Structure prediction request, 206 residues.
Amino acid sequence: MSLEKIFYKKKCRAWIILCLLVVFTVTGCRKPVNTESVSEAVAIPNKDNEEMTQTRPELEEARNIDMATMESSKSEESMTDSEERLAENMLKLFINDEEIQIIWEENESVEALKNLAEDKPIIIDMSMYGDFEQVGSIGQSIPRNDKQMTTSAGDIVLYSGNQLVVFYGSNSWAYTKLGHIDNKSEEELGRLLGSGNVTITVSVNE
Prediction:
Protein backbone atom coordinates (compact mmCIF):
# COMPACT_ATOMS: atom_id res chain seq x y z
CA MET A 1 0.00 0.00 0.00
CA SER A 2 1.37 3.46 -0.90
CA LEU A 3 1.92 6.25 1.59
CA GLU A 4 -0.75 8.40 -0.07
CA LYS A 5 -3.49 5.80 0.54
CA ILE A 6 -2.44 5.35 4.18
CA PHE A 7 -2.52 9.12 4.72
CA TYR A 8 -5.95 9.39 3.07
CA LYS A 9 -7.45 6.70 5.33
CA LYS A 10 -6.07 8.37 8.46
CA LYS A 11 -7.47 11.67 7.33
CA CYS A 12 -10.97 10.16 6.84
CA ARG A 13 -10.88 8.55 10.27
CA ALA A 14 -9.93 11.89 11.83
CA TRP A 15 -12.91 13.59 10.16
CA ILE A 16 -15.28 10.88 11.33
CA ILE A 17 -14.02 11.15 14.93
CA LEU A 18 -14.32 14.95 14.80
CA CYS A 19 -17.92 14.73 13.53
CA LEU A 20 -18.83 12.25 16.28
CA LEU A 21 -17.35 14.55 18.91
CA VAL A 22 -19.36 17.48 17.57
CA VAL A 23 -22.56 15.40 17.61
CA PHE A 24 -21.98 14.17 21.17
CA THR A 25 -21.14 17.68 22.33
CA VAL A 26 -24.34 19.21 20.86
CA THR A 27 -26.50 16.37 22.16
CA GLY A 28 -25.01 16.60 25.62
CA CYS A 29 -25.74 20.39 25.79
CA ARG A 30 -29.45 19.92 25.17
CA LYS A 31 -31.64 19.64 28.30
CA PRO A 32 -33.92 16.61 28.34
CA VAL A 33 -37.59 17.37 28.00
CA ASN A 34 -39.46 16.86 31.27
CA THR A 35 -42.52 15.01 30.07
CA GLU A 36 -44.09 15.15 33.52
CA SER A 37 -43.88 18.97 33.53
CA VAL A 38 -45.42 19.06 30.09
CA SER A 39 -48.24 16.81 31.21
CA GLU A 40 -48.79 18.93 34.30
CA ALA A 41 -48.81 22.09 32.17
CA VAL A 42 -51.40 20.58 29.90
CA ALA A 43 -53.46 19.21 32.78
CA ILE A 44 -53.50 22.38 34.92
CA PRO A 45 -56.50 24.48 33.86
CA ASN A 46 -56.34 28.23 33.54
CA LYS A 47 -58.10 29.52 36.65
CA ASP A 48 -58.65 32.94 35.12
CA ASN A 49 -60.40 31.38 32.14
CA GLU A 50 -62.53 29.23 34.45
CA GLU A 51 -63.54 32.26 36.49
CA MET A 52 -64.37 34.20 33.34
CA THR A 53 -66.39 31.24 32.03
CA GLN A 54 -68.28 30.99 35.31
CA THR A 55 -68.74 34.75 35.65
CA ARG A 56 -70.05 35.38 32.13
CA PRO A 57 -73.44 33.63 32.64
CA GLU A 58 -73.81 35.39 36.01
CA LEU A 59 -73.19 38.75 34.34
CA GLU A 60 -75.72 37.93 31.63
CA GLU A 61 -78.27 36.93 34.26
CA ALA A 62 -77.66 40.12 36.27
CA ARG A 63 -77.99 42.20 33.10
CA ASN A 64 -81.29 40.50 32.24
CA ILE A 65 -82.58 41.15 35.77
CA ASP A 66 -81.60 44.83 35.52
CA MET A 67 -83.36 45.15 32.16
CA ALA A 68 -86.49 43.44 33.51
CA THR A 69 -86.46 45.75 36.55
CA MET A 70 -86.12 48.82 34.34
CA GLU A 71 -88.97 47.69 32.08
CA SER A 72 -91.13 46.93 35.12
CA SER A 73 -90.41 50.38 36.56
CA LYS A 74 -91.28 52.04 33.25
CA SER A 75 -94.50 50.02 33.06
CA GLU A 76 -95.43 50.97 36.63
CA GLU A 77 -94.69 54.64 35.92
CA SER A 78 -96.81 54.47 32.75
CA MET A 79 -99.68 52.83 34.65
CA THR A 80 -99.40 55.44 37.41
CA ASP A 81 -99.51 58.27 34.87
CA SER A 82 -102.53 56.69 33.16
CA GLU A 83 -104.30 56.25 36.48
CA GLU A 84 -103.58 59.85 37.43
CA ARG A 85 -104.91 61.13 34.10
CA LEU A 86 -107.98 58.92 34.50
CA ALA A 87 -108.55 60.19 38.05
CA GLU A 88 -108.24 63.79 36.84
CA ASN A 89 -111.09 63.24 34.36
CA MET A 90 -113.26 61.15 36.67
CA LEU A 91 -116.85 62.15 37.28
CA LYS A 92 -117.68 62.76 40.93
CA LEU A 93 -121.16 62.73 42.44
CA PHE A 94 -122.26 64.25 45.74
CA ILE A 95 -125.56 63.72 47.48
CA ASN A 96 -125.99 66.84 49.56
CA ASP A 97 -122.39 67.25 50.83
CA GLU A 98 -121.41 63.56 50.84
CA GLU A 99 -119.24 62.22 48.05
CA ILE A 100 -120.63 58.96 46.70
CA GLN A 101 -118.53 56.30 45.00
CA ILE A 102 -119.93 55.58 41.55
CA ILE A 103 -119.07 52.91 39.01
CA TRP A 104 -119.82 54.79 35.81
CA GLU A 105 -120.88 53.16 32.57
CA GLU A 106 -118.79 53.66 29.44
CA ASN A 107 -121.23 55.20 26.99
CA GLU A 108 -121.89 58.47 25.16
CA SER A 109 -124.43 59.62 27.76
CA VAL A 110 -121.83 59.51 30.56
CA GLU A 111 -119.31 61.19 28.26
CA ALA A 112 -121.81 63.98 27.51
CA LEU A 113 -122.54 64.38 31.23
CA LYS A 114 -118.82 64.66 31.90
CA ASN A 115 -118.43 67.28 29.19
CA LEU A 116 -121.20 69.33 30.80
CA ALA A 117 -119.59 69.04 34.22
CA GLU A 118 -116.19 70.14 32.90
CA ASP A 119 -117.55 73.65 32.29
CA LYS A 120 -119.02 73.91 35.77
CA PRO A 121 -120.50 71.51 38.35
CA ILE A 122 -124.04 70.36 37.58
CA ILE A 123 -126.32 71.03 40.55
CA ILE A 124 -129.58 69.08 40.45
CA ASP A 125 -132.49 69.61 42.81
CA MET A 126 -133.94 66.12 43.23
CA SER A 127 -137.48 65.12 44.21
CA MET A 128 -138.73 61.87 45.71
CA TYR A 129 -141.01 59.88 43.45
CA GLY A 130 -142.88 56.60 43.94
CA ASP A 131 -141.09 55.71 47.17
CA PHE A 132 -138.27 54.09 45.17
CA GLU A 133 -136.38 56.90 43.38
CA GLN A 134 -135.29 60.52 43.33
CA VAL A 135 -135.43 62.40 40.04
CA GLY A 136 -134.26 65.83 38.83
CA SER A 137 -133.52 67.75 35.64
CA ILE A 138 -129.92 68.12 34.46
CA GLY A 139 -130.86 71.32 32.57
CA GLN A 140 -130.58 70.08 29.01
CA SER A 141 -130.88 66.95 26.89
CA ILE A 142 -127.90 64.68 26.25
CA PRO A 143 -127.56 61.59 24.01
CA ARG A 144 -129.46 58.56 25.25
CA ASN A 145 -129.82 54.89 24.40
CA ASP A 146 -132.88 53.76 26.31
CA LYS A 147 -133.38 50.08 27.01
CA GLN A 148 -136.06 48.30 28.97
CA MET A 149 -134.64 47.26 32.32
CA THR A 150 -135.47 46.54 35.93
CA THR A 151 -133.45 48.77 38.20
CA SER A 152 -132.12 48.01 41.66
CA ALA A 153 -131.12 50.16 44.63
CA GLY A 154 -128.06 52.24 43.73
CA ASP A 155 -128.67 52.41 39.98
CA ILE A 156 -128.28 55.83 38.34
CA VAL A 157 -130.08 56.28 35.02
CA LEU A 158 -130.98 58.90 32.43
CA TYR A 159 -134.72 59.31 31.81
CA SER A 160 -136.12 61.04 28.71
CA GLY A 161 -132.63 62.33 27.87
CA ASN A 162 -132.71 65.14 30.45
CA GLN A 163 -133.65 63.65 33.83
CA LEU A 164 -131.21 62.11 36.31
CA VAL A 165 -132.75 59.33 38.39
CA VAL A 166 -131.18 57.67 41.45
CA PHE A 167 -132.89 54.57 42.80
CA TYR A 168 -133.16 53.40 46.37
CA GLY A 169 -135.76 50.79 45.32
CA SER A 170 -136.65 49.06 42.07
CA ASN A 171 -138.64 49.93 38.94
CA SER A 172 -139.07 48.60 35.41
CA TRP A 173 -138.94 51.10 32.54
CA ALA A 174 -136.88 52.19 29.53
CA TYR A 175 -133.77 54.04 30.71
CA THR A 176 -130.18 54.70 29.74
CA LYS A 177 -127.95 53.42 32.51
CA LEU A 178 -125.30 55.87 33.71
CA GLY A 179 -123.79 54.07 36.67
CA HIS A 180 -124.24 52.42 40.04
CA ILE A 181 -123.54 53.54 43.63
CA ASP A 182 -120.78 51.30 44.95
CA ASN A 183 -120.35 52.20 48.63
CA LYS A 184 -123.89 52.10 49.99
CA SER A 185 -126.15 49.21 50.97
CA GLU A 186 -129.85 49.22 50.09
CA GLU A 187 -130.66 50.09 53.69
CA GLU A 188 -128.23 53.01 53.69
CA LEU A 189 -129.63 54.27 50.38
CA GLY A 190 -133.14 54.11 51.83
CA ARG A 191 -132.10 56.33 54.73
CA LEU A 192 -130.17 58.70 52.46
CA LEU A 193 -132.73 59.07 49.66
CA GLY A 194 -136.02 58.05 51.24
CA SER A 195 -136.17 60.69 53.97
CA GLY A 196 -136.70 63.78 51.83
CA ASN A 197 -135.55 65.64 48.75
CA VAL A 198 -131.80 65.91 48.20
CA THR A 199 -129.40 67.95 46.08
CA ILE A 200 -127.04 66.13 43.73
CA THR A 201 -123.86 67.72 42.42
CA VAL A 202 -121.99 66.21 39.48
CA SER A 203 -118.46 67.50 38.88
CA VAL A 204 -115.13 66.51 37.33
CA ASN A 205 -111.86 66.12 39.24
CA GLU A 206 -109.42 68.94 38.61
The chain is about 50% helix and 25% strand. The radius of gyration is 49 Å. Confidence is low (pLDDT under 50) at residues 37-44. The longest strand covers residues 172-181.
